[in-house]
Specification:
The protein is an alpha/beta fold and 768 residues long. The chain has three domains: 195 residues, 3-Layer(aba) Sandwich (Rossmann fold); 154 residues, Sandwich (Immunoglobulin-like); 287 residues, TIM Barrel. 26% of the residues lie in helices and 20% in strands. The protein is built from 21 helices and 28 strands. The strands form seven sheets. The protein has a six-stranded mixed β-sheet with strand order 1-6-5-4-2-3, with helices on both faces. It has a six-stranded mixed β-sheet with strand order 20-21-22-23-25-28. Strands 12, 13, 15, 16 and 17 form a five-stranded antiparallel β-sheet that branches. β18 and β19 form a beta hairpin. α14 packs across α15 and α15 runs parallel beside α17. The longest helix has 17 residues. The radius of gyration is 26 Å and the shape is globular. The structure holds beta-D-glucopyranose. The site of beta-D-glucopyranose has 8 residues, from loops.
């Protein structure tokens, strides 16, 4: 196939030369199911109620068994040919002789949900019905084992609720009643949580009437079957939490002012996000129901023979994991550090490395190896308490802990010691400093004041050198650049400013795309338009195209697998579908931090922890780009709230920005070089991120070495000229375009416009 054949001509060609198609193919559906099983987290399992004994009678309660939510809504939606709900999943197990189900009861829920859908209720928003007395009696006679499914839906453009009985973070009154009735009448109660983010877990944690709980997340096309796989023991639970599950919404520090204003959010919790808060701040520990890193198995493990070797700044950790129980399973070894408090104050624990084992049979052992750089334990001194605008390792002893959750660790003999007052790891400059954030939390739970200012944000844009290359004597086509006949700078020299601007402005949809294209489509120079499509849970193609694509599990579930190789495979499979549908840029992965349980798009994001988020995003990007499809890492940065997302100002300290909110992006950029990054809608410390020169040029490109292209988020409200000057190259998807006039008026130079066009065309060179 000649270069750019797919993006230019949109041929109806299968991915493989032998005629095999990949879009929603069996292999990808199977991968989706496998991934779903890997990321589900077993939170509770008393009396070994799970796995369900072979041949047992079970009854399924809750409308969630029918109204199954496979993933969240908005651009993260995926349209497949079917969604396997929990009831259907168990029907397959029944056919296999694993369980018997009381169909009469599930038929009741099927009816209820069907009626609510017919009345216009949306998926995941149905109301829990009352259990009819007669059905309860039939069910009681049938078995002592009940499975309850609770489902939740959220999506782009709005946030979740966190009030008592809201049917969102908390159970609704109807759900609570159903749970009480079922727990009062059955000896074994198993709860399945089909959710996309943090929810209340206090209602089952110490409730001895509920024996088992599977946090099944929103698990994609085969989600219901993956749940049945795990409950019946055909797959083993091996997921571990990537967020802290606290005993109430108020327990999260971000809850205090999440809804204070639609215009701004003050990140007063600073670096104390998630477990960094709960493990550090006095008394916060008691508010945790299920800690970060936690997840049960059907077996037990022993982690022993932990060794550390240091070579320069590189530390290698080895540990032997032994399956000490009587069931097969996988364990995740987690390494945390605790830095000395020093003058800056530090979280009590921070994740530094992790590794999941292979499937271990009873008695089997495996040596796992992990490594990290001691410099990754540095803290950012934004105020100059020790060394201003620098990453430093403060004096003292850095302790290491190894275990299988942030709580269940042992302190190991190895330490890293800094003798001097501090070790300078990296001297940087003040960037993106807050202007209106008045205070931030310290490690003892008190707050310190921060300087505020009313001064507007100004940038010192450098003067970019003009392109001195000469236009070729004969008109050159873009393909001449691809084939090495003409240099990119020579090619660009032939274009007018309005042609350059045209290149960096979104273009109309073509083929099956519905999120528009980029690249100008200038026939005269052979510049094609490359279409984009959404993710992250699979390729999103509009329903009306009648193309079904594979719905993979939501990003949070994938992160709970703690298995980057698996996420690589999901990225690779998704990108194959993207390619088969002639699209060149896949708008995924999304990786904002889970700061508050309420963020409506948490299901699209990985974790409250930047290391997990960064490693998972990097794996996904590598998988995608192995197919010569551009990944788009989004939304850069601090898009942690959906309400008024176009204008809301995230006010955050430089330290929290660097250590938490952009750390994952930094890891992903440095390890996987995404070809594109999407800036976010929101403002950050007073400026739209897409117009933020310090963020997009000084940090992203100059400090981290990002070599790709930055696009806006779709239909954002900032101005294109300032965006280009900031380093945001492409305005998506289509826009009123003042830049040619701004050029005439001397507000932007040709060199600035040309640089963005060049970045876009360089991305084309990588697409095949
Ligand atoms: C979302 C992006 C998405 C884009 C294109 C925006 O509303 O925030 O994540 O990629 O739309 O659909």
């Amino acid at each position: 196939m000649v270069k750019w054949c797919r993006v230019k001509y949109h041929p109806n060609l299968p991915y493989y030369n032998d005629g095999r198609r990949v879009t929603e193919c069996d292999e990808h559906i199977q991968l989706s199911r496998e991934a779903a099983c890997e990321g589900m987290v077993l939170l509770k399992n008393e009396n070994k109620v799970l796995p369900i004994v072979n041949g047992k009678n079970i009854v399924l309660f809750g409308k969630g068994q029918i109204d199954y939510v496979k993933g969240g809504g908005g651009s993260g939606e995926v349209n497949g040919s079917y969604i396997r709900n929990v009831y259907e999943g168990f029907k397959i197990k029944e056919k296999e002789g694993k369980v018997n189900i009381l169909h009469q009861l599930s038929a009741f829920y099927e009816d209820v949900v069907k009626k609510q859908f017919a009345d216009g209720v949306e998926i995941g928003k149905t109301t829990e019905p009352e259990i009819p007395e007669y059905l309860l009696n039939v069910a009681k006679k049938y078995t002592d084992t009940a499975v309850i499914t609770i489902d939740r839906f959220s999506g782009e453009g709005y946030d979740r609720k966190g009030e008592e009985y809201d049917g969102d973070f908390y159970l609704s009154r109807e759900e609570e009643k159903m749970v009480k009735t079922v727990s009062a009448n059955f000896g074994n109660v198993i709860v399945v949580l089909d959710v996309g983010g943090m929810v209340d877990t206090s209602w089952f944690k110490d409730n001895d009437k509920i024996s088992s709980v599977l946090l099944a997340w929103q698990a994609g096309i085969e989600g219901g079957l993956a749940i049945a796989d795990i409950l019946c023991g055909d797959a083993v639970p091996s997921g571990k939490l990537v967020d802290t599950f606290a005993d109430s919404f108020d327990a999260y520090p971000s809850s205090a002012n999440f809804n204070e204003s639609e215009d701004y959010v003050d990140y007063n919790d600073d670096i104390y996000v998630g477990y960094r808060y709960f493990e550090t701040i006095p008394d916060a520990k008691d508010r945790v129901c299920y800690p970060f890193g936690f997840g049960l198995s059907y077996t037990t493990f022993d982690i022993s023979n932990i060794t550390f070797t240091q070579n320069g700044d590189d530390v290698t950790v080895k540990a032997t994991v032994t399956n000490t129980g009587d069931y097969k399973g996988k364990e995740v070894v987690q390494v945390y550090y605790s830095a000395p408090q020093g003058k800056l104050g530090k979280p009590a624990r921070e994740l530094i490395a992790f590794k999941k084992t292979d499937l271990l049979m009873p008695g089997e052992s495996q040596i796992v190896e992990m490594s990290f750089d001691v410099k990754a334990m540095a803290s950012y001194d934004d105020l100059g308490k020790v060394c201003k605008s620098a990453y430093i390792l403060e004096q003292g002893t850095y302790k290491l802990y190894v275990g299988n959750s942030v709580r269940n660790t042992i302190e190991v003999a190895y330490t890293y010691d800094v003798e001097e007052q501090y070790r300078l790891v990296q001297q940087l400059k003040q960037r993106c400093a807050p202007r209106k954030l008045a205070k931030r939390m310290l490690s003892d739970g008190s707050y310190e004041s921060l300087p505020t200012t009313d001064e507007p944000v100004e940038y010192n844009y450098p003067t970019l050198p003009e392109n001195t290359a000469k236009a070729p004597q004969e008109k050159a086509m873009l393909m001449d650049v691809a084939s090495g006949k003409v240099l990119m700078d020579e090619f660009l020299a032939q274009l007018t400013v309005s042609e350059l601007v045209h290149i960096i402005t979104g273009q109309p949809n073509r083929g099956v795309a519905n999120t528009y294209g980029m690249g100008g489509d200038i026939e005269e120079y052979g510049i094609p338009t490359v279409m984009t499509a959404d993710g992250p849970a699979g390729l999103r193609i509009d329903r009306h195209c009648s193309i079904n694509t594979t719905a993979f599990p939501c990003a949070t579930l994938l992160a709970c697998s703690w298995d980057p190789d698996l996420i690589y495979r999901v990225g690779e499979a998704g990108a194959k579908e993207v390619k088969e549908n002639n699209i060149g840029v896949w708008l995924t992965p999304a990786m904002n931090i889970h700061r508050s349980p309420l963020c409506g798009r948490n299901f699209e994001y990985y974790s409250e922890d930047p290391l997990i988020a960064g490693v998972m995003a990097a794996a996904k990007i590598n998988g995608i780009q192995s197919q010569h499809i551009a990944a788009s890492l989004k939304h850069f940065a601090c898009n942690n709230k959906e309400t008024n997302r176009h204008e809301s100002d995230s006010r955050v300290s430089e330290r929290a920005l660097r250590e938490i909110y952009i750390k994952g992006f930094e890891i992903a950029v440095k390890t996987s070089q995404p070809w594109t990054i999407m800036s976010s809608y929101n403002c950050m410390n007073g400026r739209h991120t897409s117009e933020n020169y310090e963020l997009l040029t000084e940090i992203l490109r100059e400090e981290w070495g990002f070599r790709g292209l930055v696009t806006t988020d779709w239909w954002n409200t900032a101005g294109q000229t300032l965006e280009i000057r900031a380093g945001n190259d492409v305005k998506m998807p289509i826009t009123r375009n003042d830049t040619p006039k701004d050029y005439e008026d001397g507000k932007i130079t040709r060199a600035e416009i040309e640089l963005s066009a060049k970045r876009l065309l360089e991305m084309y060179m990588k697409i095949d």
